[in-house]
Amino acid sequence: MNKILMCGAVLAGLLASCSQNSKTFTINGTVCDEIADSIYLVFIGNQDYRNDTKREPKDTIVVKDKSFNYSIDIDYPTVICLRAVLSNGKPRWQYDMVIVPGETAKAKICADRMELEGSKFYQQAGAMSKIIYDTEKRLDELYDQLSETTRDSILNEKEIVESNFYDYLVAHNSDEGAFVYAYRYTSLGRQASKLFDTIAVPEMKKGRFAHYIEIALENERQQKEYEAKIAEALEKTAVGKMFTDFAVEYNGRTQKLSDYVGKGQYVLVDFWASWCGPCRAEIPNLISIYNKYKDKNVNVLGVAVGDKPEDSERAISEMGVNYPQIINAQNIASDEYGIEGIPHVILFGPDGTILERWLYGPTIEEAVRKHLGL
Question: CATH code for 3-215?
Answer without folding.
Answer: 2.60.40.1120
